[in-house]
Write a structure and sequence with these properties.
11 helices; 79% helix
Length: 209
């Protein structure tokens, strides 16, 4: 897409890792725009893949042009996922997800820490051992609980089950993980994640015979 090409042009010959040195944005309008775009991320995810790509490219462009804001961590992490999934650049996607985590540490963006770990888990599955993805998703859950990001904390529950299945974990242990996740999602009242976990449990039981 043209938005993706514009991001690549703006990035130029800079390495992905060098973007950790970007200055903080000092324009209140940019801060406000990035905050609004961060809120619109979920509707974009569930509406159209092309809209999501355009949305993330716009957030990345604002960051490259004006500096880092807290929602930049979310934008960089999910831009990494789009790089791997849509543009077949999984290693660069992983590097962007790691960059998002680095920005959280550098600037103390605690409210976005769970989201950064969540994106890192997804990107890790392409370019790192499954153990790294599991570590990231457990961190996403923990920080989601601590910061009140219930959405990420709940999604982390079913992702942890998926990662354990992918790793070939003993099914009794996977079942225990699913039970813990199901109890958490039910307490949170997150029906979509409850439904996913129940379907995972049915798969586990089917595999058990």
């Amino acid at each position: 897409t043209r938005a993706y090409e514009a991001v690549c042009l703006q990035l130029g010959d800079r390495s992905i890792e060098s973007l950790v040195e970007l200055p903080r944005a000092n324009d209140e309008n940019v801060e406000a725009a990035m905050s609004v775009l961060a809120l619109l991320f979920a509707p974009a995810v569930f509406t159209d893949a092309n809209l999501l790509t355009l949305h993330l490219c716009h957030m990345v462009m604002l960051t490259l042009e004006h500096g880092v804001t807290a929602p930049t961590t979310h934008a960089f992490g999910w831009f990494g996922i789009v790089l791997g999934d849509t543009f077949q650049r999984p290693l660069d996607g992983y590097r962007f997800a790691r960059l998002a985590r680095s920005l959280v540490d550098r600037h103390g963006f605690v409210a976005y820490e769970a989201k950064a770990y969540f994106a890192l888990e997804l990107a890790s599955l392409w370019s790192a051992p499954i153990a790294a993805a599991l570590e990231a998703i457990r961190s996403a859950h923990r920080h989601g609980v601590e910061s009140g990001d219930v959405t990420v904390a709940c999604y982390a529950c079913n992702h942890a089950v998926t990662d354990l299945i992918l790793r070939g974990e003993q099914l009794d242990r996977v079942w225990d993980e699913s039970e813990r996740g199901l109890a958490f999602a039910r307490r949170a009242g997150f029906r979509d994640v409850v439904d996913v976990l129940v379907s995972q449990q049915r798969f586990i039981q089917s595999m058990r015979g």
